[in-house]
Automatic annotation (TrEMBL):
Family matches, as Gene3D superfamilies: 1.10.150.900, 3.30.70.360, Zn peptidases
Organism from which the protein derives: Sphingomonas glacialis
Family: Belongs to the peptidase M20A family.
Pfam families documented for this protein: M20_dimer (PF07687), Peptidase_M20 (PF01546)
Record-given protein name: M20/M25/M40 family metallo-hydrolase
Amino acid sequence: MRAAFAFLLSTAILTSSVHAAAPTTAADAALDLAKQAIALRSVRGPGNQTPQVAALYKGALVAGGFADKDVEIVPLDDTAYLIATWPGSDPTLKPLVISGHMDVVEAKPADWQRDPFTPVVENGYLYGRGATDMKLDGTIAITALTDLRRTGYKPRRTIVIEFSGDEETVMKTSAVIAERLKGADIVLNIDGGGGVLDEASGKPKYWTWNGAEKTYADFRLTVTNPGGHSSMPRPVNAIVELSKALEKVGAYRFKPELSPLTREALGKAAPFEEPVIGAALKAFVADPTDTAAIATLTANPATVGKIGTTCVPTLVSGGHAENALPQRATANINCRIFPGHKPAEIMAELGRAIGDPGVVLSDVTEGSVPNDASPMRRDFIAAIDRAMGQVYPGVPVFPAMASGASDSMWFRSHNVASYGASPTFIKPSDDFSHGLNERVPVATIAPGIRYYRLLFADLSK
């Protein structure tokens, strides 16, 4: 296995040196490296090429000035993770960690207009699986970091850049990396945050950094029954009992709430929403008990998850034969839990809402840990404002909370502040992460490199 990795690494360094002559700018270099990464099918399962992406990235980092010994690739199951260290001049300072991932979601070539693992640049867009999530962001960060080294910058705080290898699936490498780097001062998750382009003009409208994400949880509802012959119905039927419980879950609404982060996020996002939603956001921020505002926001799929915990049934199974009374019926309830609450608390609240001791609830969550919001650190916010202000002067900047899970949760579970801080700007209509014909505008590359250089230097001084 180690020999195979050595071969992959030597191949990646050779490939990197061959391609290094072609790019004429840092943006060209980042795009070229992203194309090479997209061409590697880094999908969990047979033929997983995430280790090759790690070797490619190591080649670029070593060619950009990192010592070979300071870039570590660790195989794990069918994937691998990478940790590269740029030692700072003051070893007493906790490190700055730049966090990303190398794996991508599966893509079936027959469903795409272009082969998902053959990168193409057309009409100002880079197409391919991983273009937005998140191979281009990874190569922009690598390019910015190696650019800083070439200019002679010497960080006072140690800089660590790491890439997990299974963020899109089981997050095993994500958990291992966070455990290894739990002594970090701050984490910049380049797989979160980002900017929105105006649909009509294509100009930047606003940019958000991600300071929190909801905790992912799965709860199983189970109803058991002795069953019997279907010709002899009984008063209690496992499927019927489960159905009544699911109806109560579907009708239940958790208490809407605000945190310091979401108060600022929703208030500043309101002007960019259509008028009815914007007015409801303003009203909710002013009074989180406003019933009219809550009704408007909970009826809108784009905002219901921003004002509290949500739980929905996603899977149902029951019965064992067409001519028998069901002996067992189960359902999965998927929850996205507002920061500040633990899964056990939410599961207990669901149990009270169901109000039936015959329905047994159990936590069957995998690949997730509870995490609270990162603090509103002044040094981070000031650095973000300075970097964005220089690269995109006048563009509004404010925080956001994500509904999906990312590697940030593993760091936050160790009480390490982690913030989504991607510089990528994209139109909402062009966002096809995890979907067909994934693409990202190449015009976002050059300012992204400049932004990362400013931010990395600011937080490592």
